[in-house]
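Researcher: Quick test of sequence recovery. Tokens follow.
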């Protein structure tokens, strides 16, 4: 299984590509997708194009998205929804299944605590994946955490499916 984890955002979208082989997760690539700050129009197209390029380059088998949290600011929630919609469209055009995980579920899966801080998430992502270098960006660490959450969830779902057959 190869998971493209995405932490959607209009200013910065984090991405992380994880591969699971024999139950072991490894980080293939992570980073940020960020339109130029001066770009007013075309941000959605930029984000869509970049995500499609990541899909073409890394050939994931599934996309894992961090679900939009309930924001106090309605405008922020709508903007995040647009970024998430663009990521979903890129996945659908490429015939990839999409799974969404609430931020608290991601934190529980990675840190074991639903109210974990960004620093705790970054540290646990580092401990789980043991990449060559630490992720500096909270966006790419969040994307990796979403991918880890999906990988763990998929392993559990597979075990349940096997036991249901028995």
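Model:
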């Amino acid at each position: 299984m190869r998971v493209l984890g995405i932490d959607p955002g209009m200013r910065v979208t984090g991405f992380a590509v994880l591969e699971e082989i024999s139950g072991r997760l490894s980080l293939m690539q992570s980073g940020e997708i960020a339109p130029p700050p001066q770009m007013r129009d075309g941000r959605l197209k930029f984000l869509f194009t970049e995500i499609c390029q990541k899909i073409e380059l890394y050939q994931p088998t599934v996309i894992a998205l961090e679900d939009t949290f309930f924001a106090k600011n309605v405008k922020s929630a709508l903007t995040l929804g647009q970024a998430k919609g663009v990521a979903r469209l890129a996945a659908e055009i490429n015939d990839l299944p999409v799974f969404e995980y609430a931020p608290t579920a991601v934190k529980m899966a990675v840190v074991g605590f639903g109210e974990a801080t960004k620093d705790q998430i970054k540290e646990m992502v580092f401990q789980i994946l043991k990449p060559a270098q630490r992720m500096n960006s909270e966006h790419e660490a969040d994307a990796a955490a979403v991918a880890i959450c999906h990988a763990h969830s998929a392993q559990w779902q597979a075990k349940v499916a096997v036991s249901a057959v028995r």
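Helices lie at 43-58, 74-93, 103-110, 118-129, 138-165.
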